[in-house]
Amino acid sequence: MNAYQQPQSSGIHWPDRTPGLLYQSFQAVPRWPEPRQRASIFEGLEKQMAEFAAHHEALLSEVRRHYVLPADSSVVTFLTEHRTLSPILLEAVPELKACFGAQAVFSLRAPIDDTGAQTLYAVAIWPGNVRDVREALERFDDTWWIQHSRRASGYLSFTYELV
Q1: How far apart are CA 24 and CA 88, in angstroms?
Q2: Who's near 23: CB < 8 A, 6+ residues apart?
Q3: Can you tell me the distance from the alpha carbon of 40 to that of 116, in angstroms, rounded to the nearest whole number?
Q4: CA–CA separation, 45 vs 51, rounded Å?
Q5: What is the Cα–Cα distance from 122 to 90, expressed in whole angstroms?
Q6: Which of 13, 93, 114, 125 has the CA that lies 20 to 30 A from 140?
Q7: 67: alpha, beta or left, given left = phi > 0 and alpha = psi -120 to 50?
Q8: What tens digit of pLDDT does each residue of 110-141 get?
Q9: Rounded distance, CA 52 to CA 48, Å?
Q10: Which pLDDT tens digit goes with each residue over 143-158?
């Protein structure tokens, strides 16, 4: 015997006289803003882009004053792709000079490793012995770099080279 006497359905029963109501609009058609209104978004954009590029060039020229860059464009390209590194390098200069000495020379390198990853190296060119340069680098790490290294997101490393 069948336990359900009435036929089962989804519960949606459309009245016979409502086919016209199925497609009546319930909200207004969206209106697009006039082209002049949208143009105001881009007003001054080219000027902002030019100012941004000029600021970046000023930072790069300041980096060139404090660091030796290679003849190829690898470092400049890297600093252009990672624009947060130039201010970090400039902030590091007084700390580097305090730890390594005012006459120390610092160079930048951006080699590509075997996996294709690229890291910027700020290299202290050191004419002394290895013990002294390690102590200077450790002092720099402890006094400044550890506190600011997070801003570089792993793209910048400070090291030394003995000459």
Answers
A1: 61
A2: none
A3: 42
A4: 10
A5: 11
A6: 114
A7: beta
A8: 999 999 899 999 999 999 899 999 999 999 99
A9: 6
A10: 999 999 999 999 999 9
Whether the CB-CB separation of 69 and 76 falls below 8 Å is answered with yes
User: How far apart are the C-alpha atoms of 24 and 8, rounded to whole Å?
Assistant: 29
Residue 149 tokens, joined: 């290294």
Is-contact 155 119, C-beta < 8 A? Answer: yes
Distance CA 119, CA 114 (A): 12
The token duo for 112 is 């590509």
- Please state, in angstroms and as integers, the Cα–Cα distance from residue 138 to each residue in 1, 126, 142, 149, following that order: 89, 14, 6, 14
The number of C-alpha atoms within 13 Å of 143 and in the hemisphere containing its C-beta is 14
Query: Are the C-beta atoms of 147 and 158 separated by less than 8 Å?
Result: no
Give the integer Cα–Cα distance in Å for 97 and 1: 96
| Amino acid symbol at 156 | L
What's the order of all strands across the beta sheet hosting 156-162?
105-109, 120-126, 156-162
Please tell me the distance from the alpha carbon of residue 62 to that of residue 108, in angstroms, as a whole number: 13
pLDDT tens for 41-68 read 677 888 899 999 999 999 999 999 999 9
